[in-house]
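--- STAGE predict ---
source: upstream dedup step, 1 unique chain passed
mode: sequence only
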Amino acid sequence: MRANTLIMIVLAGVFGVLAVVLVNIWLASQRNAMAQTGVPGSTVVVAAMALKFGDVLTSDKLREVAWPAGAVPAGAFKSTKDLLAGDGAKQALQAISVNEPILATKITGPGQRATLSAVLGEGMKAVSIRVNDVLGVAGFVFPGDRVDVLLTRTVRGDDGADRSFVDVLLQSMKVLAVDQVADESKDSPTVVKSVTVEASTKDAQKLTLAAGAGQLSLALRQAAASKGESTERVTLADLTGETPADVAARQAELDRKAAAEAAAAEERKRAEDKIAGLTQAVEKVGSRLDELGKVKPAPVMVTAPAPQPVVKEVKYVTPAPPIRTTVGVFRGVKLETYDVPRQP
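--- STAGE serialize ---
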C-alpha cells in the first residue's frame, strides 16, 4: 500500500473521531442549557414508521419522544400504553408520516373499524356523487381534497330557445373517498365512477335532489382555499354576450334564410328542367325538318290531252325550304305551339 494512501486513511479516521466528539459536546451543552432554563419536558407518542389508512397500531410502530410540555399538540398521547389502552385494536384513519405525533382524531377508538363513519365529523353525513372521467376532474380528486359541486340544468323556453345554466351548488366540500378508497395517501390519478363527500344533513338533501334535477360535476379547489366565495349563475348569454332572446332571434333569422335559399334553389331547378326539356324538343323538331328537307319531291307526269298533237315542255322546280317552322310542345295535356327559325 502506498504511503500517501495510508496517510489519507489515518487522517480521515482522525477527522471522523473529532467530529463525533464535537457533536457529543454540543448535545451535552444543549441539554445543560435546557436543564438550566428549567423548561418542563414531556413525551409524545409519534409514528416510528409511515402509516396509511387502515393500518393497525402496535407498539413496534410507535415510539415516545421528548416534547416541550407547553407545545404538546391537542389530542396527543404521552405514552404508548395510553394510546393502546382499551379493548380491541386501533387503526389509522389517515396517512401518518414518520415522527408525526399520533393524535386522537387520526386514529379510531378501541375496537372501532377504520371506516367512513369514523372519519365523519359530528353531525356530518357521507353522500356519494356519480361522476365520470370528465366530471370527476379526470381522476385527480383524492380523499382529503376539497371540491365545489356544480349543477348544470338544460331548460327550454316557451319559444323553444335553449336557456341552460350552471350554478355552484355547494362549496368547499371535503372528499372522503373516491370509489371505495378512503386512503388519503393515494397519489396516482385513476378514472372513477363515484366520489363521496362530507356534507351536513341539508347539503346531503340538496345533493340528492340535484342528482335527479340535472348533471353534477366537480371543481377542484386549491388546498389552502377552504373559504367560500360569492358566485352567480352562468347562462348561454354569458358565453356569447347576447341575451337568450337575441340568440333565439338570430337563430330564427338563420333558419328563415336557409328555408328561403332552399326554396329558391328548388325553383331554379324546376325552371332549368323546363328549359332543358324545351331545348330537346326543339332540337328533335329541327332534326326532323332537316331530314324532310333533304328528300327530293317525286316528279309529276302531266299527260297531254289526246286531241292536242303538240306536247309542251314541263319544267320541274324544287320548292325552297321554309324559313320558319311551327313547333308543338305538350305541357301535360295542353299543346302549345311556337314559331321558331328553321335550323339550316
